[in-house]
Amino acid sequence: MIQFSYPFISKKNPDDDFLTSLQGMNFWRYTGVFKKRFFILEGFRVHVRFMKPFLILQHRPISEAAENELAAFLKYGELKKTEIRRIRMEENGIPELNLDDYSAIICGGGPGNVSDPEEKKSLSQLRFEADLIKLYPQIFEKDFPFLGACYSIGSLTNYLGGEVATSNYAEEVGSSIIYMTEMADSDPLTQGLPKKFNAFVGHKEACQNLADGAIQLARSDKCPIQMIRFKNNIYATQFHPELDKEGLSLRIRIYKNYGYFSPESAESLIDQIQYEQVTVPEMILKRFVERFRR
Length: 294
Description:
- By secondary structure, this protein is α/β, with parallel strands linked by helices.
- It has 8 helices and 14 strands.
- It has helices at 14-24, 63-77, 89-92, 123-142, 151-159, 245-254, 266-273, 280-292, and strands at residues 33-34, 37-41, 44-48, 54-58, 84-88, 104-107, 146-149, 164-165, 171-180, 196-203, 206-207, 214-219, 227-230, 234-237.
- Helix 2 runs antiparallel to helix 6 (245-254) and helix 6 packs antiparallel against helix 7.
- The longest helix is centred in the middle third of the chain and has 20 residues, at 123-142.
- It is globular, with a radius of gyration of 21 Å.
- Residues 1-40 have low confidence and may be disordered.
């Protein structure tokens, strides 16, 4: 039996579109395994399964930064645009979701801080944070595959009662040396990776302790909580698994007046990161996608 998948379709009549595509690709003579829908095609029974997309959650208000982040998730996760559904939470929040419709969630970072006082947060941040709080119970109840970068490690920790603050463990924009813990040796996303590697960071707040149920997978000298896992499938990193030199250079220029560093040092920071070798974090992103693609 020949198995093949078909990209997620959001058209009114996906069945006709699917059959036409099969005939056009000369697949009509074979039997394929797909979802829970049967078609009779030239006397053959075709069982159709549409691939479940990855849900990409973003909250970067500046579109240039959001587009670059999305492109990085696609590139290093080896995802196609037809394999994702993208939601920019800062625009309209998070709509009603059925997690069974998705393979996994990837949540990006942004300039907002979880620990900022409510009165200092924008209305859009207050809205999407409230929506995330409604979504997290579903994620934890199902142990639904989730990978969050930077902001999400604080968001998850805060949701589970851990402390997130700007008082300790912030890291300047640039490269940080990440050390794997012993627990990383047996984790599907990190086992076999180097015990020490470089990653790009830049954050004003950090987790001050581990939330209940968190398994620590990585640390750094300046920031002790760099990667955690909850249950079997829920992950978050303080470093950026999607970020490369070009992406970080762009963010330095975009966020130079956001308090991460003095604006006058922006070009110097960009020059410094050109000499960094950062390759392991993207492997974690790729492994996450490979493990949960379905």
